[in-house]
Amino acid sequence: MPYTKSPRPYKKEYQQQKKRGEHEDRMERQRARRKYDKKGINRKGKDVSHNKMLSKGGSNKDGTRLESPSKNRARNGQKKRKK
What we know:
It contains three helices and two strands. With 83 residues, the chain is mainly α.
């Protein structure tokens, strides 16, 4: 539910992110994007995808690649199901 009558507690949300471990993953993603930018690689319209997902314990050391957003987000860490 959106905050309509009270201001949004940004500081509280940030503390919750850090507690859940989301902050470190976000920083890892940001470092990966900056690495591509520093090399001068055009990543317009692409996602920087990690070879081993950060949610599964991966890091930038495991490697990254440029991937289309639909392909990167479709993987989403789910096992392939039989139809």
